[in-house]
């Protein structure tokens, strides 16, 4: 048993050391938290897109009980400059801390978005553009290897990168669609060569439809597609979200299934994610659980995430639309 644990530790350490060059320029990981009224984490065009400014906190823990298991914390805020007009500019900020074994990333993202109404009538009809710039510090901590004799020790290695995302979005009534290109360009603060990392663009397309306002329960099916340029990996999310409103409270639940299609791996990634949440007046809370469905997994403990949010300076919705852009409740 001791030899098996030691072998596992060696493989674990080697895996993350090899992974450093492949993930050094990646930014905020893409999970299913965009379904927790947190689309801005994924698409820059979601900044200030609706009738409310939004402040969100998330914390995520994977593989509970495993040392140095992946963990993520984010803080995000986005708002319009002026809610008095149907068209106008918006801004947003994201700060995140992502730890994955002996590899970690800290980043700050700033976003500028512009929202242009196509028509002004009873249905929300809007075209949006967004551009984000991010400063990321990638850190590799190899000091703990020094005394084990497994791997030649080293120091903490840190590199800084500047990155950018661009996106467009179109909404019409309950229909929503987003297209974003992540990792537009890369620069590095030190003298290391990063030319090999220029193919790390990630293309993301998502769309959904919200309906049933006159029904007891409202539904919002949606899909998300990713294409990673460097590896050719394709990822698809199939989602279904349900809402039920009681006065100034709204209960909602979602299920998401993620499937990757990567010819370079032995087994495709398969994830099942249920989410439950409540919106109470100006606040929202959600809990997300993700279970791996692959035959070979490190642990069966799953991934856990909590999101807490506040809606600020909400104005009356100017037209009917999906809940992400037409919040039905008041603000502080």
What does this structure look like?
- This protein has 332 residues and is mainly β.
- The chain has one domain: Beta Barrel (Porin).
- The protein contains one helix and 15 strands.
- Strands 1-2-3-4-5-6-7-9-10-11-12-13-14-15 form a 14-stranded antiparallel β-barrel.
- A hairpin with a 2-residue loop joins strand 11 (234-246) and strand 12.
- The longest helix has 22 residues, at 2-23.
- The chain is globular, with a radius of gyration of 21 Å.
- The model is unreliable at 1-25, 149-153 and 188-197 (pLDDT under 50).
Helix content: under 10%
Separation of the first and last Cα atoms: 57 Å
Please report the first level of CATH classification, the CATH class: Mainly Beta
Overall mean confidence score, pLDDT:
80
Low-confidence stretches: 1-25, 149-153, 188-197
How can the largest sheet be summarized? 14 strands, antiparallel, barrel
CATH topology: Porin
Query: Strand sequence of the main sheet, in spatial order?
Result: 1-2-3-4-5-6-7-9-10-11-12-13-14-15
User: Number of helix segments?
Assistant: 1
Q: Tell me the fraction of residues in β-strands, as a range.
A: over 45%
Whole-number total of structural domains:
1
Q: How many β-strand runs?
A: 15
Level-2 CATH architecture: Beta Barrel
Overall shape: it is globular
Walk me through the topology.
Blueprint: H1 2-23, E1 53-62, E2 71-80, E3 88-100, E4 103-117, E5 125-141, E6 156-172, E7 175-182, E8 187-188, E9 202-209, E10 218-228, E11 234-246, E12 249-261, E13 270-280, E14 283-292, E15 303-312
């Amino acid at each position: 048993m001791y030899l098996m644990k030691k072998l596992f530790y060696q493989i674990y350490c080697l895996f993350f050391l090899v992974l450093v060059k492949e993930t050094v320029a990646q930014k905020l990981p893409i999970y299913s938290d965009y379904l927790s009224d947190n689309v801005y984490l994924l698409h820059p065009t979601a900044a200030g897109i609706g009738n409310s400014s939004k402040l969100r906190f998330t914390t995520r823990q994977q593989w509970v009980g495993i040392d140095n298991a992946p963990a993520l914390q984010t803080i995000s805020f986005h708002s319009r400059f002026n809610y008095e007009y149907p068209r106008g500019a918006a801004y947003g900020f994201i700060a995140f801390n992502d730890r994955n074994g002996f590899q970690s990333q800290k980043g700050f993202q700033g976003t500028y978005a512009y929202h242009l109404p196509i028509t002004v009538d009873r249905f929300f009809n809007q075209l949006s553009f967004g551009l984000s710039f991010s400063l990321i510090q990638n850190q590799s901590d190899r000091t703990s290897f020094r005394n084990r004799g497994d791997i030649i020790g080293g120091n903490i290695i840190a590199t800084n990168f500047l990155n950018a995302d661009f996106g467009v979005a179109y909404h019409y009534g309950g229909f929503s669609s987003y297209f974003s290109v992540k990792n537009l360009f890369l620069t590095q603060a030190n003298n290391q060569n990063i030319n090999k990392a220029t193919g790390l663009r990630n293309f993301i397309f998502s769309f959904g439809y919200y309906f049933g306002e006159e029904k007891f329960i409202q539904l919002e099916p949606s899909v998300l597609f990713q294409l990673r340029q460097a590896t050719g990996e394709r990822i698809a999310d199939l989602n279904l979200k349900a809402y039920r409103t009681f006065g100034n409270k709204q209960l909602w639940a979602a299920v998401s299934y993620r499937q990757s299609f990567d010819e370079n791996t032995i087994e495709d990634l398969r994830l099942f994610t249920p989410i439950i949440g409540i919106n109470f007046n100006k606040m929202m809370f959600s809990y997300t659980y993700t279970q791996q469905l692959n035959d070979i997994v490190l642990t069966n403990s799953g991934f856990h995430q909590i999101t807490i949010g506040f809606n600020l300076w909400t104005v009356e919705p100017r037209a009917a639309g999906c809940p992400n852009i037409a919040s039905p409740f008041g603000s502080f």
